[in-house]
Amino acid sequence: MAELKCLLWDVDGTLADTEKDGHRVAFNMAFEEAGMSRRWDVETYGELLKVTGGKERMLFDIERGGMAAIAYEKVAELHARKTIHYQTLIADGLIPLRAGVLRLLEEAYAEGITLGVSTTTTPAALDVLIEHSLGKEWFDRFAVLAAGDIVPNKKPAPDIYTYAMEQLGVKPENTVALEDSGNGWLSAQAAGLKCVVTINDYTAAQDFEGADLVVSEFGEANRDAVDVLRNKHNLSDVHHVTLAHLKAIAEA
Question: What secondary structure letter does DSSP report for 7?
Answer without folding.
Answer: E
